[in-house]
Amino acid sequence: xxxxxxxxxxxxxxxxxxxxxxxxxxxxxxxxxxxxxxxxxxxxxxxxxxxxxxxxxxxxxxxxxxxxxxxxxxxxxxxxxxxxxxxxxxxxxxxxxxxxxxxxxxxxxxxxxxxxxxxxxxxxxxxxxxxxxxxxxxxxxxxxxxxxxxxxxxxxxxxxxxxxxxxxxxxxxxxxxxxxxxxxxxxxxxxxxxxxxxxxxxxxxxxxxxxxxxxxxxxxxxxxxxxxxxxxxxxxxxxxxxxxxxxxxxxxxxxxxxxxxxxxxxxxxxxxxxxxxxxxxxxxxxxxxxxxxxxxxxxxxxxxxxxxxxxxxxxxxxxxxxxxxxxxxxxxxxxxxxxxxxxxxxxxxxxxxxxxxxxxxxx
Length: 363
Description:
- The protein is of the alpha/beta class.
- Helices cover about 40% and strands about 15% of the residues.
- It has two domains: about 5-135 and about 285-330, 3-Layer(aba) Sandwich (D-Maltodextrin-Binding Protein, domain 2); about 140-280 and about 345-360, D-Maltodextrin-Binding Protein, domain 2, CATH 3.40.190.
- The protein has helices spanning about 5-20, 20-25, 55-70, 90-95, 110-115, 175-180, 195-205, 220-225, 255-265, 270-280, 295-310, 330-340, 345-360, and strands at about 45-50, 80, 105-110, 130-135, 140-145, 160-165, 185-190, 210, 235-240, 245, 250, 285-290, 325-330.
- α3 packs across α11 (about 295-310), α6 (about 175-180) runs antiparallel to α10 and α10 crosses α13 (about 345-360).
């Protein structure tokens, strides 16, 4: 059954439900009546929030065959790539066009979550309602030249600091906010899309701070940072402790640990609460999710497939000392909640952006 035919049949089922009175129709969970019984997944498909070069695209080439066995699919799952690196296009398509019949799962990067939290007008999805199956977590590391210790003199002077970012609401927003919490006036330098570009800009003095969000083993991270030694740029902190990063054998402190070290007390306040949800989202390499209202039997079938895939050697390259932590099953819900955040924190984030974004656009 093709994807188009499957969606037609499902939408026909929705139309039939729409003709029933509210008293009899119940909730939209009646979708279970138009999907195969017993957790059978017909034509399982991966919708990829990104192009082939994106993190989601790279993951899909491994997940498509790895999940097939658990879903009893005769071949690797069909994959449908979308455009861009930040995943917004694919996430929009998933929320607006995917029928919750359990047939389609989304592979989405954390950048799409950050964009949504920031209130970007391109984002038309609510990721907090998705059903998480598997998360690949990492700990982005912030590197640069910045005196994080604030003296009395610093309290009365302007401390601008240039931060490399891919876009206005890019995944580096967590680092921009972190610099503000440390008492700097962050100036985003936009259009720097890759770790290599960011580090080159840092080495050449075009920016002061960069965020490295690519997962990598300690040796690869050491090699990446070697060219920065002459420029006095050093690892400042990691955004989270999802994976403990080390540089030249020494652990890198988390933002919370570094702040407490420099200020003598832990970070607090509503801007910090807003930062936490952005940092959590930025620490998501990819998530494998289903739509809200997917029937429980189909959710269970996908979770079983993720468990089967986890026992295969196909995922070893994404797991063994690679700077990632893979989480699956019910444990995912707590992490997704941390990325969704509470309403006051999201509102604070958007108010803060409303104040500072005009300044950034003016340079």
